[in-house]
Write a structure and sequence with these properties.
The complex is a heterodimer. Chain A contains 13 helices and no strands. By secondary structure, chain A is mainly alpha-helical. Chain A folds into 2 domains: 2-35; 66-276, MetI-like fold (Orthogonal Bundle), CATH 1.10.3720.10. Chain B is an all-alpha fold. Chain B folds into 2 domains: 2-60, no CATH class; 80-319, MetI-like fold. Chain B is 73% helix and 0% strand. Chain B has 15 helices and no strands. Chain B starts with a helix and ends with a helix. Classes of the chains: A mainly alpha, B mainly alpha. Chains A and B meet through helix 1, helix 4, helix 5, helix 6 and helix 7 of A and helix 2, helix 3, helix 5, helix 6 and helix 7 of B. Chain B: One of its GO terms (cellular component) is plasma membrane.
């Protein structure tokens, strides 16, 4: 019996280790590549262990790639997407959580259906629409397009948080004469701040990571976000690969840090939309 | 348009919420009008940026619109549909979509559930391990494509180097028609399995301790506890995750586009990649829109089947 338990424990530990290696290896390999010179990458072969002593050289290597400008553009798109999405999402979440009205089911379905519509199918008509409105080749147009896909997710994250607040709190505020918008801004919003933060993280990195619209709508390389700029290097090995990997790591780091911090709330919102739809 | 929705509210609800705007007004339940006011911006936004383009796209599929003049284009009836359905490329692309979807859903569900069960146990450093396992999901797709393209590289990539140590010859993971699809699926599964893990983990943690306790008192061992307590509890969650994974796989674009661009020899040319290439390489917006509309029908059909199964299953579970 004791032996059986030891064997089981050993198996579980091995499986866990395998998972950690599986999930972590590509991230590790990205870092390792960033710390390897091109001669080693293409000729003598990449070491399995990273040359940590080369870390001070990374900032210089980054100069091979205009990553700073790209990240600024990514940041602009991400920030705009977050602000616009949160404004629409908080109001909509409050309506779906607290009001009964005709067509509520239809509204919820419309919001959920965005999960089903492939961006690649909408990119053609959006391209035509934005062409007419003069929104092509601008970061503002990308904010508008990204918000359509990011906002519903934010809305469901915030809605599932509002659902958990007992309505009696607002009820008593109402009896005390607090107007409706005051109940939203002074009572409900402070209570759901953590979920709004999670929704902000999701929408920010939706905008930060977005590639398809940016790659299609922007013709001017000065306006490229990091996703489009870095994508030009996939499978191309003319620019020093170590610089490209260092830039890609810089691009990934904020997304990884924020997501790991917020994972639980983010996931609950992503599935909540599906349950209600 | 916003007036239209507001006018749609029944009169008594409208007057009730008019009262609600006055401080101190008494009202038994939230009126309808304010609900419309709060939901209107989000709904109108989606109408303008999703529904209108969707309708325009479907309209475009009946014209001969080209990329050079996206606003022009003459009506051509069902010509684009006939052309799409008559070409091997469409059927190949449908097959690629189904293969990619089936493999990705199976892979992410298997790995995600396994990881969730492992991480659900109490052990030292659990939070750290859980954080590490979510890295792939958090990483931007473009960065994932960059590092996987490098790892898959034929002469210098780490996979072929590792296999070379074992005496296996070089494989063109992204260029060999036999391996292209499998390589793209593997990269996708790596990226997406943490999502399944997190959702299943949340469901596992909601299994109450009493249930485990009851099973233990009944003398159940770990495996039969898992089968008779945990699995039934997980079933509804797994169905929802499977639905999400399916929908997301059908629409997934970036990682396939970046790794293979639909190649080698169209082995990974899924419907969404096909649409994009037809529109922006062949510059045929009309045909692209027709393929897109057909793809949307596929994706709606799959969702309907899922929702029907879901309804039947949940009724069965309630009955038993």
């Amino acid at each position: 019996m004791k032996l059986k338990r030891t064997v089981a424990r050993l198996l579980v530990s091995t499986a866990l280790l395998a998972f950690v290696l599986f999930a972590g290896f590509p991230v590790y390999w990205m870092l390792n590549t960033a710390l390897t010179s091109d001669t080693e990458l293409y000729k003598s072969g990449q070491d399995w262990w990273p040359h940590a002593e080369r870390l001070p050289g990374v900032p210089d290597a980054l100069a091979d790639v205009p990553i700073g400008d790209w990240l600024l553009n990514s940041g602009f798109i991400a920030f705009g997407t977050t602000m616009l999405s949160l404004l629409l999402a908080v109001l909509g979440a409050y309506a779906l959580s607290r009001y009964r009205f005709h067509g509520k089911g239809a509204a919820a379905f419309l919001l959920f259906s965005t999960q089903m519509l492939p961006e690649a199918l909408l990119v053609v008509p959006l391209f035509a629409l934005f062409g007419m409105l003069g929104l092509l080749n601008g970061l503002g147009g990308l904010v508008l397009a990204n918000t359509a896909f990011a906002m519903p997710v934010a809305l469901f994250i915030v809605k599932s948080a509002i659902d958990k607040i007992p309505y009696e709190i607002e009820e008593s505020a109402r009896v005390d004469g607090c107007p409706r918008y005051g109940q939203l801004t002074q009572i409900v919003l402070p209570l759901v701040t953590p979920s709004i933060a999670a929704a902000a993280v999701v929408t920010f990195f939706d905008g930060w990571n977005e590639f398809l619209f940016a790659n299609t709508f922007l013709t001017d390389s000065e306006k490229w976000p990091a996703s489009v700029g870095l994508a030009t290097f996939v499978g191309q090995y003319t620019t020093p690969l170590s610089s490209v990997m260092a830039a890609a790591f810089l691009f990934s780091l904020p997304a990884i840090v924020f997501f790991v911090l917020m994972q639980r709330r983010i996931v609950s919102g992503l599935t909540a939309g599906a349950v209600k739809g | 348009m916003s007036n239209g929705t507001v006018d749609g509210a029944p009169p008594e609800a409208a007057s009730a919420s008019k009262g609600a705007r006055r401080p101190g007004a008494r009202r038994r339940r939230p009126g309808e009008l304010l609900g419309y006011v709060f939901i209107a911006p989000a709904v109108l936004y989606l109408a303008v940026f999703l529904l209108v383009p969707l309708v325009q796209g479907i309209a475009m599929s009946f014209t001969d619109t080209r990329l050079i003049n996206p606003a022009g284009g003459e009506p051509v009836g069902f010509d684009n549909y006939a052309q799409a359905l008559g070409a091997d490329r469409f059927w190949n692309s449908l097959l690629a979509t189904l293969l990619y979807t089936a493999a990705t859903v199976a892979g992410t569900l298997a790995l995600g559930t396994a990881a969730a069960v492992l991480v659900n146990r109490a052990f030292r450093g659990r939070a750290l391990v859980r954080g590490l396992l979510t890295f792939p999901y958090a990483m931007p797709t473009v960065a994932v494509a960059l590092v996987f393209a490098w790892m898959y590289n034929q002469s210098n990539g780490v996979f072929n180097r590792g296999l070379g140590v074992l005496g296996v010859g070089e494989t063109g993971w992204l260029t060999d028609p036999n391996w292209g699809m499998a390589s793209v699926v593997a990269a996708t599964v790596w990226k997406v399995f943490p999502f399944v893990m997190l959702v299943v983990l949340a469901a596992l943690q909601s299994v109450s301790a009493e249930l485990y306790e009851a099973a233990r008192i009944d003398g159940a061992d770990a495996l039969s506890t898992f089968r008779s307590v945990v699995v039934p509890h997980l079933a509804p969650t797994l169905r929802i995750v499977a639905l999400l994974m399916t929908i997301w796989s059908i629409r997934r674009f970036e990682i396939i586009f970046l790794l293979t661009g639909g190649g080698p020899v169209e082995k990974t040319n899924t419907l969404v990649i096909n649409v994009y290439r037809t529109a922006f390489s062949d510059q045929d917006l009309g045909l692209a829109a027709a393929i897109g509309a057909l793809g949307l029908i596929v994706s709606l059909a799959v969702t309907c089947v899922f929702l029907l199964v879901e309804r039947r299953e949940s009724q069965r579970e309630e009955a038993s």
